[in-house]
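Work Package 4 report. The design task specified in the project plan requires that, given a folded chain encoded as structure tokens, an amino acid be chosen for each position. We show below one input record used in the internal validation round.
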């Protein structure tokens, strides 16, 4: 195991970093105060337009004209277009008037602007009468976590609080699937496909795997193919080219791994990690399922994936079921790995949302230094944060219940609780003749 690098310049370096962190905190508080003040002023502008525009003209609403006029006046100060200011006035009123508890928590420093945006974006999927209840739960549950980490969980919460089932709403939304072309500049355009999330994720994942196969082959070969030796495309460029090739030709036109046929790229299949509650799997619940690291998907799609996959296995978080909890070898057994994927869901570094299936299982206490291969000493880390743990002064220890406590080079600690389980079991009285759940 490689030892951590020594901190440059010792105490002077540490003091400099500590000063920068303190300055960032101070600036952050001042910026937040200014942002909240601006939202309140813009919301007040919208209310003023309401007050002045109550009567109606025969041809246009006075309110709209007043709002346009105020927006144009404010736009001159903000150096924005009046349309942009009018849009921001509407957004400000939604936040200030619709989600006041979130604003108060932001002002108190409990959450940041990103949290507020995530709460508002998810809450707008609910009827307005449920906003107060939703934001109260959201603030309490998600305080202390980074905005990108909470976004997916807040969406799941909002979907479960909605008076209509997620399955019903997804069916309506799926009717709007489409492909549209947006002309751009310099001979370029954007081709936008609106698809069910799991389909879009699968397409993107397969394109990524194919692009990596081409780039890996290109990097390994130093001669023998003019295509390989002259190909200097980035991953994004290869992915876009693969997308066009597959749609227009049916097979990759630049499959650098091929022999005489379409080559190994044609065998690549997308991987999608989905957490399906048992009640949803059996059809007793039509709530959303969690596409780990991304967003909710509809229950029908989740059931189809569970039915058709060849690696589906039931998973129970219960010591009486025989789940492997430790092994003498360094290698993590497949059963333990599946358990950890369900527990961790994503990289366990604070704020990271890389799905567990894209991460490495790390020994919290290094195996080479005596750390055991057991559930209480294992956690998923993406390659970036695995390397940080190995080669920088960041330290981590695992507490009871899979909680990770990270310590920064400055001595700051960050608790990374185990994600909220996607499946929860509650005891129920058994009745004679009841069918088995599976």
């Amino acid at each position: 195991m490689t030892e951590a690098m020594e901190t440059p310049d010792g105490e002077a370096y540490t003091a400099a970093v500590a000063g920068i962190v303190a300055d960032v905190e101070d600036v952050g508080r001042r910026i937040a105060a200014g942002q909240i003040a601006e939202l309140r002023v813009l919301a007040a502008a919208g209310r003023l337009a309401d007050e002045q525009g109550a009567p109606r003209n025969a041809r246009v609403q006075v309110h709209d004209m007043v709002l346009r006029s105020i927006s144009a006046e404010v736009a001159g100060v903000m150096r924005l277009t009046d349309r942009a200011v009018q849009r921001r006035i509407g957004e400000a009123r939604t936040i200030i008037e619709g989600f006041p508890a979130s604003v108060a928590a932001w002002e108190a420093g409990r959450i940041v602007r990103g949290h507020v945006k995530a709460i508002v974006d998810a809450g707008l999927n609910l009827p307005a009468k449920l906003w107060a209840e939703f934001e109260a739960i959201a603030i309490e549950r998600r305080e202390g976590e980074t905005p990108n980490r909470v976004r997916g969980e807040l969406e799941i919460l909002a979907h479960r609080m909605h008076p209509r089932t997620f399955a019903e709403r997804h069916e309506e939304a799926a009717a709007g699937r489409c492909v549209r072309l947006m002309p751009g500049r310099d001979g370029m355009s954007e081709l936008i496909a609106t698809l069910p999330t799991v389909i879009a994720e699968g397409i993107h994942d397969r394109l990524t795997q194919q692009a990596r196969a081409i780039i890996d082959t290109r990097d390994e070969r130093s001669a023998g193919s003019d295509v390989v030796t002259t190909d200097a495309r980035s991953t994004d460029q290869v992915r876009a080219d693969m997308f066009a090739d597959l749609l227009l030709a049916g097979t990759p036109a630049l499959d650098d791994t091929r022999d005489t046929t379409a080559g190994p790229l044609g065998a690549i299949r997308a991987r999608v990690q989905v957490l399906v509650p048992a009640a949803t799997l059996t059809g007793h619940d039509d709530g959303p399922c969690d596409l780990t690291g991304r967003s909710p998907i509809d229950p029908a799609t989740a059931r189809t994936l569970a039915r058709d996959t060849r690696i589906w296995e039931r998973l129970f978080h219960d010591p009486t079921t025989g789940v492997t909890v430790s092994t003498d070898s360094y290698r993590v057994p497949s059963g333990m790995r599946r358990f950890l994927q369900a527990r961790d869901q994503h990289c366990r570094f604070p704020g990271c949302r890389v799905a567990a299936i894209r991460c490495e299982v790390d020994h919290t206490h290094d195996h080479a230094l005596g750390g055991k291969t057991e559930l209480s000493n294992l956690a998923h880390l993406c390659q970036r944060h695995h390397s940080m743990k190995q080669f920088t002064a960041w330290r981590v220890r695992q507490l009871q219940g899979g909680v990770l406590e990270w310590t920064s080079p400055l001595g700051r600690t960050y608790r990374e609780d185990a994600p909220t389980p996607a499946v929860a079991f509650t005891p129920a009285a058994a009745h004679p003749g009841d069918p088995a759940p599976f």
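Residues 319-416 form one domain. Validation will be extended to a larger panel in the next phase.
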